[in-house]
Structure formats: C-alpha cells, structure tokens
Amino acid sequence: MIYKPPQPKLLRWIALFLIGTFLQFLFYIPTPVLSQNSNSCSNITTPLTSEEQTYARAAWQYFVKNYQPATGFTNSTGGYPSGTLWDMGNYLMALNAARWLNLTDQADFDSRLNKFLTTLSSLKLFEDALPNKVYNAATAQMVDYGNNPLERGLGWSALDVGRILAAFDVIRTCHPQYNDWLKGIIAKWQVARSLKDGQLFGATVLPDNKTLLVQEGRLGYEEYGARGYQLWGFSAPKAIALEPFKLVEINGVQIPVDSRDFQSTNANNYVVSESYILDGIEFGLQGELADFAARVLDVQKRRFDTTGQLTAVTEDNIDQAPYFLYNTVYANGTNWATITDTNQPYPQFRSLSTKAAFGWRYLFPDNAYAQKVFDAVKDLRSPDDSGYYAGIYEESKQPNKALTGNTNGLILEILYYKARGNHPLIASTSASVSTSKPSENTSLATPANQSNSTVTTPIATPANQPNSTVTTPIATSKPTEVAVAPIPPVDSPQPSSNLKRDRALTPVERRYAEAAWRYFQANYHAKSGLIDDRSDFKGATLWGLGDYLAALHAARSLDTITPKEFDQRTRHLLGALTKLPLFAGELPSRSYDTRSLQPVDYGGNPVPEGNGWSALDLGRMLAALYNLKSCHPEYTAAVDKIVLDWSYLRVVREGILSSATVTKEEDGRYLTRVNPEIRLGYEEYAARAFQLWGFNLDRSAVGGEYQTASVEGLKVPIQRHRTDTNSKVNQYTVSNPFVLYALEFGLDPKMRSLFEPIFQAQAERYRRTGTLTASATTLIDRKPYTVHSTITGQGESWVALGDDGQPVPKGRLVSTAVAFAYHALLPDNKYSQQLQEGTTDLYNPLVGFYEGFYETTGKTAVGFTSSTNSMILQSLLYNVTNRQPLIRPTTMNSLWWQTVSKGNSGRGLPNTATQQTKLTSDSSGSYWVSDSEKTHLVTGTK
Fold it and tell me: Which of 27, 66, 372, 836 is the Cys-Cys partner for 75 at CB 3.0 to 4.6 Å?
C-alpha cells in the first residue's frame, strides 16, 4: 500500500469507501465513538493537592502545545514533529490521566482520541506488518530519526509495540467504547512477527536493504514490554522471565544486571529507573521486581550519601548534541555510565531526571531520599508554560531544558496513579476479573471488561453434568453483596503449617508461586470471603472452594502469604461455608453466587431451591478440609462443626458415590434425581477423600475392572466396567483428576496402573508428532467455555470436546496446571521437563497463570481459574516436601469421630469411627490405600 498525504474530506471518504469495499474482510474501519465513564478509572480516592494540581496542569500543557491537529499525534519533543510508537503510548497514557484528573473535558478527550485512532488505523506499516520505528507526527509519514521520509521505513521496535499495547489496555478498560476499534487496529498488525522463541524481536534494515530480526530488551524493559503483549494474549515467556541476570555490587548494593553483555550481543544492558517506575505504576511492583526496584532506588541514595550528588538516573533527551542519553546505574561493565545507544560515553552530561524523581517519590511515598530528589525537580517547569524540563545537569547544575512527551506523559501517569490511591493502572483494570460475556468472534484472546453486564459465562468444573445445557441468563439486578463474618479466632493459631519442607523454593519457583497466588488476590470477595471459580464469572462451586482452601494451605506452607493473612482468609472461608444454603437441607448446592451466597445454575441464574449437589465437588472439599485439620489442627473444631451440619444419607449409598440433579418436567414440576457418579478419575479421587472421613466406598474407590482403548500403542483407561448403573455420561479421559490424586494421595499400585499409560500416551504422541501434549479439562473465555482436550473421548484419540460432547475443532490446549503437576510428579522424565519449559511462564503477573496454550497455533488460551492456580501451588509444594503425598494423617480424637462413635446420627455418618484408607509406603514411595483391599485391578481392551 502506497502512503498518500491527507486529501480533501470528500476524496478521502471516497477512497475509504472503495478500499473498504474491496478489502472488507481484511480491514477494520472504525466509527468514531463517544466514551462513557468507567467507575474504576474515575474513582479518585486520593485527590491531588493544590500543588499537585499545578504539576499536572503544567505537564498537560506540553501536550496541548505539541498537538498535531492533522493527525491527532503529538510531538515527541517540544516543537519537533516526530514520534515513535513508545511516544504514542505515552500520549495515550497522558490523555487518559488528563481526562480523569479533569484537565480536559469529555468532548475534547473524544475528539483527540478519535483523531488519533483514525490516523493510527491508516498508518503505513513496515513491510505491511507492524508500525515503523518512527513517524512524522504532523503528516503520519514513515521517516528516519532525522524526520526524513522513507518509503520502506526503518523496521519496528518490539519494546515500543509492548508500550502501546499496555496503553491500549488502559484505554479499552477506562473507555470501553473504543475496545472494538483497538482490536481492529491490532488485528491489522502482524504482532506474531515480533515474537520468536518466546522472546521479543525488533526489525532493522541492513545496508543491503534486507530485513534483520533482532532480539530486543534487557532486564527491566524486556519484562515490561512482554507484559504489554501479554495483556492482549500474546505470550513471550522467555522475555517475561527475569533470567538471565547476575548481581553486581555497586556502592554496597547488589544490583540485578542482565548478563547478556554488549560485547557479544551489541545491545546495552543498562540499569535505569524508568522501567521499574513504569512497572510499578501500571502493573504494581510484586515479588522480585519489587525487590529489584528497591535496590535500584537504594543504590542511588548510596551514591548521594557518598558524593553529595543527588541521583535519579534514567534515559532522557537532552538540549544539546547528542540529544539522547542513557544515564544509568550500570551499563556494559561500567557503574554510573552515561552513554548513547552506541555505547559512546558522555559523563559530562549526566543529569538528575525529572521523571525518575517524580516516579520514585510516588512509588515510595515514605522514602526520605525519594522526597529529596523530588523536591529538587518539582518546580522545574518552563517559564512559558510548555511543560516540565527533562532534568538538571549534574556538572553544570543547569536545567536540561529538553521538553518531551516522555517526561510530561510519565508525570501525568504518576499523578493519576497517586490520585487513585497508589493503585496500579492496569492491576485494577484489564487484569481484574470481569463479569461480561466473553466475545465469541474476536480473534484477540482478552478478558472482557464491561463492568455492569449480565453474567453469562457458565461455571465449569469437573462436577458439571456433561449433558446439561447452559441456562441462558435472565436479566436481573445486581445481586446484593452479603457480608459474612469470619469464624471466631481459633485457639493458638500456628505460625506455620505442620507440613515440613525439605528445601526452600528457588527464586524462579518463588516467582511462580507468587504469580499463582495472585489469582486468589485478584478474585477475592472481601465481603463474602469466597473466590470465583473463574475470573470472568462471579460464581463458585464446592470444587472451586476446595481448590481455594488447598491453595491457601500451599501458599502458607511456601511462605507466599503470612500467617496473619492465612488465618484471616481461612476463618473467613470457614465462616462462609457455614452460611451456604444447603440443597434440601442436606448438602451444599452445585454452585453459588460469590457475592450473595445464593444458589445459581451454571448460567448464573438464581435457583432459590438449589440445583442438586455434586459428590465429586463434595469430595474435593472434604479432602481440603481434612488436610486443613491435619496441617493446621487449630481449625479442627470449626471444620468438624461444618461437616457435621451436612447429611450424607443420599450421597454415599451401598459403597458408591451419588450426585443429585434437578430436572424440570413438561408439566412444570421440578424433580430431584440421584444417580451414581461414574466420571473416570474424578470418582476415584472423591471416593478416596470420603474414605478419609470413614465412609465405606469400596465400589467407587480405585479398583475393579476398567475398559481401555489403544492410544499410541498403550492401553489407556476409558471407563470403569460396572453393572450398577446405566448412567449415560460423556466418557472421556483427561489428566486432571489423576495428577491431583497423585499429588494429594500418592500413587498406590492400582492408581499407578491407570496413571502411567495416561502419561506415557501423551509422551509418545509428542515423540511421534512433536506436539506438546498435556491433555486436560480447561476453561476459556469464549464458547464453548469448557474444553476437554482428551487422550481419548467419544471413541477417538486426541479429540477436543465441549461439555455437550461435541468436537471443538482446533480447540486442543496444552494445560499449564497439568504440565506443572507432571513435572512435579516425574521431575526426571524428559517429557515432563519439556512440558515445564513450554508452560512455566504462561502467567499474567496480576491475575495468575493462564489455562494454557493452543496446540495448533501456540497462542495463549485466555482464562484464569482457581483450579489451575491451585494445582500449580500444590505442585510447587510437592516439589519441596520430598515429593510426599500432600494430604497427611490427622488425629482421630475430634468432634467428628466422637459423633460417629455415638451412632444413629440420622445424617448418614460412617458406621464406625475408623478411616477407610491409610497412608503407607513401599519402594515406590508413599501413598494412601484403601484399608481393606477386596478387589484386584483388571483391564480389558474395549
């Protein structure tokens, strides 16, 4: 496509019409829109002081004076009509901040953003793939860094792409009417070309006019850029990982430095302030990044303490040649280096950076040194009201009078962050849980963000009836949130779990644990104490709440959360369990609204009388409650009181687990039906959990005869052979229940004979086809919402099925949770190691691990669930406990067993106060086994 300068309005619209008619399926032509306020973005909890309002108005004036009305762009530096994609991202962040800080009104905001996006939509792209590295801000032509027009362009910057993707995410969240427009722009970009081997790649043009792809990013900016990609469903796991880095001692502080050096890569490994500041105000500093940021600030203070020179260094434009410098803590083997991008030193122009000082002041508001550097620059405004200067030269003590969109945009972003109560811009926006229906047609895997729409995503857990239809939601008012009181403080809360670790987490494992726990922070209902099963649905099943309780235990055992947080959350959850309405006064219903605690169906519609119960979900919760008693015995009395409120008369019958469903008859009556549970793997898991509490479930526990199917030359189990039921349930084999069983109960000989061919078949498929395989049930953000990537299902190998049993073309996923679990269980297996390498960095640092990625495309499958993140935490715990079963024996002297001993309870308690399973060990390891083995495992090929 040949770029043409702006034409008269009529000709432009004729041209757009003709192009649109011819290429209607390739291009998205936006319609100008008017924004609507988003409550979360307009929620100013800490209004700016009068001084801060002065700072904000001064910074906004830069963009007022450097606006280009023909394109909607702004100049990257004062009076110079040029700009990169990074500069455009700065402007979008500044524009959003200006709107919510009331520096501009809604009409001006919409006018500016509509013009900006109209021009951005029609930009000529480098090789028709991605935006050029730089454009003329006045004409939107591709140019070089001297602002000279270039027909082909210079290439693209992946880091700049990441910056604008982060800005797009803030815009679509705070102004959701622009969401489709932004998606259309990204759909025209070939973002995948900037991703390779899990890393970010820019493009540059060689002297022979060939295009060379070059890995971009070093520690700090590389992770920040990758997070921008991740917000839109593009995974760069190696880029988002902190490795490789080393620690270099500078002024007595160990500073993290990218270990890829300039000599071997021709790329600077500079350490600057801005990357950490951006991460902090947009994503929230957590884990190792928080530690790294604190070190980078501290070392600058140490330099001041030693030299008396106020220090706040980062990259900046300067007002004289060479015009742009990196003022660094460290670069290419030199402490406090000031260099160009070609590593030429200019120490005489080192400066105190205005934007860095602002950033440190508001990221660390209680830090005396951060306040000191801020005081030095807070009034460094141009006298003609053109914005903030870039900084102060250290040597001459004179202002660096460069005026830039980077400095002034970051100041506005920082002040907006402060006005929101130091709440990260993205941590509370797109990364938050959503209640809107996931898009069925969008090609971009992103969570929806409509804040007031009706819930329509089905809850999907192993306990769902596979043949049930997802009920269409009815329009209802927003449920009333109930406040649940935690149970009273327990006697002598323990500072740690009774479960002993044999080693500490590695730094990488700790990062994964913190990322997985983030799900339970982002999806926590502070009033009810419950956690959503999935981030796009305000609902929970007993299985999901069991996942949460297991995650709580793992997080505490791994020191991911404090004893205080563990106790508060645990008591709150136990308090909520006592308030859940029971179906027919017997057992918890299949699903609940996490705000109102009222029963709902799998479509989220209220069902005041409940919709039955799931024996499988009940088993998951019983396993988690048992382990809470074992490892945290101070909660024993509270746990026993909860489970003694339930009636087991109909869930345990003649040694078999049964579940209740409610069906509507033609005459309008609702009838309850109780049928045996026969879901392969899940039945065995739940039965073992019931056995912990003394229930006799010899006919549901692992054992007996299993039918198998030949998959990759292996006999893979497909269902238990039984004559005690004619239930018609979709039969499929997935990994989830088997790896969960192995983590919690260990692999007894009978379960091992099922587990091993299931794993080996997946390894063999990988060996044969090169396709990574971690077959599991996963939840995604679009129809069919639940995907069973089977080993075998409906008589076929490697088929993806929906809950309705229908195939899902190209729907197979590699499950993150299952990959973690297999690696924990089989750490020395080469295939499990391959799985881990492919999935370990599939997480959003704000909301946890994604469900996985698609086998056919490698694209991240957007979906965040309690099950996935709980299993990851449990896998990490399994790693550091000498690979012993996570569930440990508990005392038999408690209220539960005392009540069982009394007999005649009228609620179906066990006949004897004896566990029906025991923990034992042999040469293969430790495992739980039925106390009385009456059956022998037999397999027969179907």
Answer: 66
